[in-house]
Amino acid sequence: MKTVHVHTPSHSYPIYIGAGLLGDFSLFAPHIGKKAAIITNETIAPLYLQQLSDLLTQNGVHVFHIILRDGEQFKNHESLNQIYDALLAHHADRKTTLIALGGGVIGDTVGFAAATYQRGVPFIQVPTTLLSQVDSSVGGKTAINHPLGKNMIGAFYQPKLVVADLNTLHSLPAREFSAGMAEVIKYALLGDVDFLAWLEQHINKIMQCDDELLAQVVAHCCQMKADIVAEDETEQGIRAHLNLGHTFGHAIEAQMGYGNWLHGEAVAAGTVLACRLSEQLGSLNADDTARVAQLFRQANLPDTPPKFALEQWLAHMSHDKKVENGKMRFITLARLGAAQISEITDMSLLEKTLNKFTV
Amino acid sequence: MKTVHVHTPSHSYPIYIGAGLLGDFSLFAPHIGKKAAIITNETIAPLYLQQLSDLLTQNGVHVFHIILRDGEQFKNHESLNQIYDALLAHHADRKTTLIALGGGVIGDTVGFAAATYQRGVPFIQVPTTLLSQVDSSVGGKTAINHPLGKNMIGAFYQPKLVVADLNTLHSLPAREFSAGMAEVIKYALLGDVDFLAWLEQHINKIMQCDDELLAQVVAHCCQMKADIVAEDETEQGIRAHLNLGHTFGHAIEAQMGYGNWLHGEAVAAGTVLACRLSEQLGSLNADDTARVAQLFRQANLPDTPPKFALEQWLAHMSHDKKVENGKMRFITLARLGAAQISEITDMSLLEKTLNKFTV
């Protein structure tokens, strides 16, 4: 088992990474009260709910379950209210622990419910997808979507611990595994060119779910994210770099309807667009972009976005929260392995970046 | 002008108290960005919205307005969504300042919107009722109601500053002024028997809105609350004392339908019940309770609750969040001027406390 510690001004907590951790009550024991709600979705419930529920029940925890519908399109007010209603029906109080069992959508939704139910109750992240293990379960960003924008309603709220059981990745559909790799590659691009080279070297074995390599990948990404979050919990500065590819990616998700493109797929295509914008700014060259695009393709990810009207690109991106006082902010690459914040006021740069992808 | 400073682990901010402060841009200037949303209700809007809006606009702030319906029954998801929708329609970003212009309902709802819009934007409290000036605008508790319980959904989130203009109290209906006095009397009971005697001495002039005495009342209560919040921002301990009378009070509000009894009226009757429960516990005597009841009556407040079934009292109170692991927690009085937390497991004590007020 590997352990990564996350330190923030408001709270510190451990991430445990390894195979079979869902059978180890000692990891949960210090952080759980007498009563816990396991909140998962209809896809994950048949796979892991019974196992986790039994583990807790056998150790004296009073457990109840809340099962949400599966998919990004259900990361919304209805799911949130389903959680609130069930917590109230079960007389959950301020010491009741919420456990998020699932991927990023579950983690974000349950985290926000935990942040806001009775002004905050303890919660534990049990991420079951590669994407949530390397990224969304770490750092305390919680949110739901609004019809006018992704992640528009949320809070910064840290879990008591994160338990990443690598065995859960074996049940993950190939398309979702690839989507998780998009965030892995993103980490390499924004902070560590050696890790980029290591990924290029091992990408085929990683895609075959080699356990040893996966443990290294998850621990490395969690450590990178933990370092960034420790420096900047509430995204005043460097944490914004983690949004590499996300402004373009969110536009793709919004245009195509949430859930039709997976988040990681949109981030992959969005990251290649961020590389192209970096070319417009003169900091990358076409070979760099081609190298990035190739790695995404090797991870079975799209390296080009769908085509839609320029006005729609801009409308979606101006609703994205990386807009400050009217300027459009993008995370771009100063070079492979180093990100920067670019404030774009010259819209022709965006036009050139997007011109092959508009109709 | 009097100034009280609130210090919490997460944030420090000033409360300004005085007549005519809504005309002083210098108070707002250090805490406001280029864009601000003034959020108020249909009752307050005709009285003070234009004045505050003009003040900001004349000083170069881009201002837009959101006007909610007035009343505790609108401290709900619909009002919250009205705020989110308007913020998105106006392309509000993370630096847009939300200004809560109104009473406790506005402050709680806008504060929660500020805590959760894009994971947190700056906000300013401009309380226009006695209750919000002495209590709800200070300390960062934000929330909306759920059909199954009051303040069930919320966050701890501090404002950038609080501006309490005493002139706004002149337009306050007498019934609401009295409701604010309930919280003033509560402060005296839970922490300061000298202040209780001072209130008994001056209650008639205070009820006639004497400006000099009011400034003392507001500053004294804010200072008491600031001291408590500094010690215990997230209500792990002593801050719970501020809930004196509130568990009974919330039951009254829930039973009678939110908005039919004013919060302060319910707190007054609830506080007398807390005194009766303290009698059951042996810490107060009947004369103490009579003294408290008399002061509430002098402030034109109810000293007895409506009658309803014991089962309904208990059902409402068990949904209240001051329930931990099944025990019912009440704030009671160790003596006049000193509160304590009492965990009640013997339900016959509650029966005796409530027996005159059940059907």
UniProtKB/TrEMBL annotation, chains A, B:
Ranges where the 3-dehydroquinate synthase N-terminal domain occurs: 66-178
Family: Belongs to the sugar phosphate cyclases superfamily. Dehydroquinate synthase family.
Binding site for Zn(2+): 183, 246, 263
Biological pathway: Metabolic intermediate biosynthesis; chorismate biosynthesis; chorismate from D-erythrose 4-phosphate and phosphoenolpyruvate: step 2/7
Alphabetical list of NCBIfam families matching this protein: aroB
Keywords recorded for this protein, A-Z: Amino-acid biosynthesis, Aromatic amino acid biosynthesis, Cobalt, Cytoplasm, Lyase, Metal-binding, NAD, Nucleotide-binding, Zinc
One Gene Ontology biological process: chorismate biosynthetic process
GO CC field: cytoplasm
Cofactor(s) essential for the protein: Co(2+); Zn(2+); NAD(+)
Annotated function: Catalyzes the conversion of 3-deoxy-D-arabino-heptulosonate 7-phosphate (DAHP) to dehydroquinate (DHQ).
MF GO annotations: 3-dehydroquinate synthase activity; metal ion binding; nucleotide binding
Protein name in UniProt: 3-dehydroquinate synthase
